Amino acid sequence: MGPAGVPRKRIAARYAAAARRSGRVTLAAGAAFYLFLYGFGATVAATYGLFAAVSMAGLSRIPGTGRQRAAVLVRLVPVCWLLVAVGTYLAVRTWTAVAGMLVIGFALAFVAAGGPRAAGAAPGLQLLYILPSFPPYDPGSLDERLIGATAGLLLLILAEAYLFPDPPTVPYRELAARAADTAQACVRELAAPPWRLSEQRARDAAAAIGSLRPMNVPEADRPAGPGVHERALSQTGLSARTLLARLLRLPEPPGGSGPAEPGRQILEAVRRTAAETAACLRGATPQTGAREGLARARAGLVASHPEPAPGAPHPPEQVAVLRWYAGLIEAADAALAMSTAAAISVHGRAAAPDPPPMRFWYARMRAPHLWWMRLEGHAGRRSVFFQNAVRISLALAAARTVAGLDTLPHGFWATLAALTLTRTTVRETGTTVRLALTGTLAGALLAAVLLAAVGSDTTVYAIALAPVMLLTFTLGPVKGVGWAQAMFTVTIALVFAQLAPATWQLAELRLLDVLIGSAIGAVFGLLAWPRGAHEELQRSAAVLMRGAAEIVVATTAAVAAGGVREVQPAVPGHRSLRHSLILAESAFAQYQSEPEGSYGHRGHAGQPGGAGRAGPVPEPDWQATVMAGHHTLWGSDRLMEPPQPGPAPVTVPPLGPDAAEAVARLGDRVAGRMLLVSAALDPGGDTPAAPVALRDPAFDGFAARPDGAPRLYYMTVFWLDSLITDLEHITGTARNRPATAPELPRH
Length: 747
What we know:
Blueprint: H1 8-39, H2 43-59, H3 66-90, H4 94-110, H5 116-130, H6 142-162, H7 172-190, H8 199-211, H9 228-249, H10 261-281, H11 290-304, H12 316-347, H13 367-377, H14 384-405, H15 411-421, H16 426-454, H17 458-479, H18 481-499, H19 505-527, H20 533-561, E1 563-565, H21 574-593, H22 622-640, E2 650-652, H23 657-681, H24 711-731
Antiparallel strand pairs: 1-2
Helix pairs in contact: 1-2, 1-6, 1-17, 2-5, 2-6, 3-5, 3-6, 4-5, 4-14, 5-15, 7-8, 7-9, 7-10, 8-9, 9-12, 10-11, 10-12, 11-12, 12-24, 14-15, 14-19, 15-19, 16-18, 16-19, 17-18, 20-21, 20-22, 20-23, 20-24, 21-22, 22-24, 23-24
């Protein structure tokens, strides 16, 4: 074991990954620097060539393989040109430079809402705008700046594409395909004696569900972008997880003799659809028609079992059949959603159904519209992306103001420190600043000794730059911010000592600038949302559950009353709940990125942070909260769709009096439990502390058998029951309740 109980193999892997990245940065930056400085005597081009490569690979963390990063960099080259040009012209006056820092700094930080690759590239783009915003104020050198930056970027693109490739990871598409394979295996067991899943198969399904959780997927492989393909792939994973969860909860068929023929047909159709989905995700040419066959089998299941006569008593065996078929329909709908989403993720808008159901509302939209919707959805103070953008832009503008008004030598370093050391919580910022100042002091002392000893002999600096840079970008990401600042200080000293004569006072200025930038970052970290994502996650999750409660009440009321059903169901609150889901997911993603101890307590054994590491109070399963929102939306969409496919509206009769009363009572009780969970997620000063059972003895509605209840009643009950299970996962009580089916993993 290594330090702090970390396995040595894991430490070695981190060093290996950092060394590969460092090698690419060093070769690209060093080649551009040496070429322009010693080959052409162009100091400006040399500076921009070096910093272009360092910014987009050393400061940025674009996830993905080398080829993927290279493709992202190719698309960003025009953006880099624009930032260098705008920064050059705005820098001539302090007020225009500050205004530009405020606006462009906000825009570059806010674009992180577009997904991991946009977020990873943002810091490097910030640096490419910061660099020309400081002396020398020389718009006449713009062409040399652009030539140097372009050369550095092109060398970096070549290095990313061809040098030191990273070990391959399992793409999300393959993970979803494996989940579809697992669903096939589950269906085979459910369709054969003893008509239930074995313990091993249940564990396989649980593992497949867990493998698709975002926290278990490498950042580069998470489909988090706003485009059609990314949204569809994310929905494929969610649908696959839902399908496996429904198969885990599917009871044995009534009668003990296995499913009747309609049930066998729908199970076989689900299996074939899962197989077709896996083949589609793997890029093969599958046999088409499985999805259409599943839709026909689902319609056949409905047609083969006519609705009971209103008011007629239900024999127990008929109730068992209706409940089992409700579970089958849930599984069939999840398989249909998985198959449709997978086709869209591979083939784009051409594979979208016409018209797309509500759950595929994005399928026929173009990328600019989807990007606008993503950014518009986060354009408010409750979004963590908005909060981070405000915090960073204010810190950058303040640093540029100080540098301009006080004519701070090398003020670029102060602004860079404000960018790199500002964190999402005040506690994390304070810790980072302390480590950074300690590292900078150590690096400054070493650089001062080096500059005093070597003097003006640039040959020594030229020889030392490459190995020091290699160490800087290898040790920094692994050892932490203290080591990174120490090594970067030495690297900066070696660079500037070659650009112009330097003394040991250069290291002193570096320390002063980092101190000023750190202080500015700490101030804005304290003033702007100092608690990071934890508080916002509590609030957004609570709002999500309140919105879900409204959807449950509206949907059960509509089911009870009957009425016109259209392809595009119009349930009040759907748009608000979808927006709440976006905010909750982004807050949860940032919360996962914050270190342990940055705020409050962190989780129980099944949560990030582990049991007992942050305190005795366990936190909710935030990921289960997000999944409960998805299940609420999907179930409501499904119940409000027409019972028969087709563009024409269909009138659905109301439930009988007993069934309507039962489903309304169940919906109200589930909504009430959602409100209790909402209060527990974001407790106030007067929130009751006494726990309330989610399944109390009075909650007998799930056992109710109203006479003459139609199939829709049992489908609604199955949906509400699954929502109660989601609430149990959120609160951590699911594992304390005996289960007739294999215990579900946390969603």
